[in-house]
Structures are given as structure tokens and as C-alpha cells.
Design brief:
With 323 residues, the protein is mainly α. It is built from 10 helices and 3 strands. Helix 1 runs parallel beside helix 9 (271-291), helix 2 (58-84) packs parallel to helix 5 and helix 2 (58-84) runs antiparallel to helix 9. The radius of gyration is 23 Å and the shape is globular.
Length: 323
């Protein structure tokens, strides 16, 4: 039972970026541009991989699903954030909070698993090229992709269901630009110890398991690269691996700092800067990092661009002949 002066809260105010009213229009334009580029880049990559038969290999299947999850992450966060720049109340209900976090957690968890799968795929392709088709079969690729989505759904459901045990009273201001679970724990009237423990256990295990696969895979790739006799081939392989590893490092680093550091449940002053990296910047960069340095994707895009003017000219000439 709660005391009579306690009012149970079912709606919250997202106060992220409210401290900079003079920068409201600038921030809106910047984040709207990031959102548009993110959606066009990721969904364009998904469409390209789906349409082209040459790209239906394990590497591109993982890449397409990664792009799809990055789009999901951006859709879960950015529209509400953009709306709040010009909203008077900036309110979000508890159930909207749960839905927003569910899709964010689903996307981020699936991303972790897909990045580990991509790292393993690159390890087999570079270090075991003769055994690639047996070690990385389409069946295994589909199983790993489905496993990523199952892990994402289960991880999300666990934390969302555990939120139902909490009651929120008193302050209803969330110092964030989206509804994350850590700020909600700080507003809880009930001790969120069990929720915090589950975050540490599940997030810690998931990130440790996937980052171990990524690190081992890239270490083996580096050893193989340094054994190459061709300096040109070594340079290209190092350049590609460095860009991939940079993206993975930023993503894993920001998630580890956000959810695993000891003071993450008590301190909220670093939430917004860190969250910008893994919710906005990484989904923006991934399609460019993984596709613009990929010759197969670049060649297909060039072919499509050449095909369009030819088709337009052909259709115009046909219409002139009919007239």
C-alpha cells in the first residue's frame, strides 16, 4: 500500500534537450537529416540485397538484417524525439515507454548477435576459404539470423515484463530523449534491485559472449592478413577490417558504458551523450561502413545507375514512335 500523498505515475515527460531551447530548430534539422539518411541508407541496402541474386550469400544476408535492425532502432527513437522538439507537454505513457524500449532492445540485441555472426563469417572467408561452403552453409546462416531475432525478442520481453513489477510515483520527468529502462528505475517507488540485477546478468552475458566471438575472429583475421605476401592485398584487407572494427568498437563500447558500468543505475548525467552514439550515430554509419567499401555492392549500384538512364531513353523513344 502507498501513502495518501503518493500519486502513482502512468505518464512521463521526456526532458532530453530541453536545456537548450535556443538550439531547438538546429537540433531538429540535424536529427531529422540523420533520420532521413539513416532510413534511406539502411532500407536502400535491404532492398538492394533482396533484389540482387548475387548478394544472397551469408555475408550479405547478415548485412541486410543488420541494416533492417538499424532501421528499426531509428524508427523506435527518432520520430518521438523529433515530435518533442515542438511539443508543449512532451508526454509519453508507460505503455508507450514499454513499446519504445521493447523495439530498441530488440534491435540492439539482434545487432550484437548479427555483428558476431558477421565477424565469424569473415573469419571463415579469410582464414578458411577452402572450407567456407561447409563451415558457413546457408542453413547455418539462416539459423544464426533467426537466433539473433529470437535472442532480441526474449531479451526485450524479460526487461519489459520486469518493468510491470515497478510502481512509479513522485517525479515523472525522464532526463532522456527516449524511454530507456535506467531512467525509469531511478523514478521507481519500488526497489528496482531485481531489475538492475537482470540487466547486469543478461546484458553482461550477451555482450561478453558476442564480443568474445568478434575479438577472436578479428585476431585470427589479423594474423592471416600479416602472413599475406602481397602488400596491396594486405593493405586493402587491413583497411576494410579497421573500418568494421571501429564501428563494432563504438557500438560495444557505448553499450558497455551505458548498462554495465557500476554507477550506471545511479548516475544519469552521461546517458544522453552515450545513447546518441548507439541509437543514432551507429545506425547512420553502418550502411556506409559496410557497403561503400564493398566492391560487389558498389558495382551493382553503378550497374543500376547506368541501367536507369538507358531505360528512360528507351521508354521515351518508344513513346515517340507510337506518336
Amino acid at each position: 500500500m502507498f501513502e495518501s500523498n503518493h500519486t502513482v505515475t502512468t505518464e512521463f515527460i521526456l526532458t532530453g534537450f530541453m536545456g537548450h531551447p535556443d538550439l531547438k530548430i538546429l537540433l531538429f534539422v540535424v536529427f531529422f537529416a540523420i533520420y532521413l539518411i539513416t532510413m534511406v541508407g539502411n532500407l536502400g541496402l535491404v532492398a538492394l540485397i533482396f533484389m540482387e541474386r548475387h548478394l544472397r550469400t551469408p555475408m550479405y544476408i547478415f548485412l541486410g538484417n543488420l541494416a533492417l535492425m538499424d532501421s528499426c532502432c531509428s524508427c523506435a527513437i527518432t520520430p518521438k524525439m523529433l515530435e518533442n522538439f515542438f511539443s508543449e507537454d512532451r508526454m509519453i505513457s508507460l505503455y508507450e515507454c514499454m513499446a519504445q524500449f521493447y523495439f530498441l532492445c530488440l534491435a540492439e540485441t539482434a545487432d550484437l548477435c548479427l555483428l558476431a555472426a558477421m565477424a565469424y563469417d569473415r573469419y571463415v572467408a579469410i582464414c578458411r576459404p577452402l572450407q567456407y561452403h561447409t563451415m558457413m552453409s546457408k542453413k547455418l546462416c539462416i539459423q544464426m539470423t533467426i537466433g539473433s531475432y529470437i535472442a532480441g525478442n526474449l531479451h526485450s520481453m524479460i526487461h519489459v515484463v520486469l518493468l510491470l513489477r515497478l510502481t512509479f510515483c513522485g517525479s515523472h520527468q525522464i532526463n532522456h530523449f527516449f524511454c530507456d529502462i535506467l531512467p525509469l528505475y531511478r523514478l521507481s517507488c519500488v526497489n528496482p534491485y531485481i531489475n538492475e540485477l537482470m540487466v547486469l546478468i543478461f546484458s553482461g552475458l550477451l555482450q561478453t559472449f558476442t564480443i568474445t566471438i568478434v575479438l577472436i575472429s578479428y585476431l585470427c583475421i589479423l594474423f592471416t592478413i600479416f602472413k599475406m605476401k602481397s602488400k596491396e592485398g594486405r593493405g586493402k584487407a587491413l583497411s576494410t577490417c579497421a573500418s568494421h572494427f571501429l564501428s563494432v568498437s563504438i557500438f560495444y563500447g557505448s553499450l558497455l558504458f551505458m548498462y554495465i558500468r557500476p554507477s550506471s543505475f545511479k548516475e544519469g548525467d552521461k546517458d544522453i551523450p552515450v545513447a546518441i552514439f548507439y541509437t543514432l550515430i551507429i545506425p547512420l554509419l553502418n550502411p556506409f561502413i559496410y557497403s561503400l567499401r564493398n566492391k560487389a555492392i558498389i558495382n551493382i549500384m553503378k550497374t543500376i545507375m547506368k541501367r536507369k538512364p538507358h531505360n528512360m531513353f528507351k521508354s521515351t523513344s518508344c513513346s515517340l514512335e507510337t506518336q
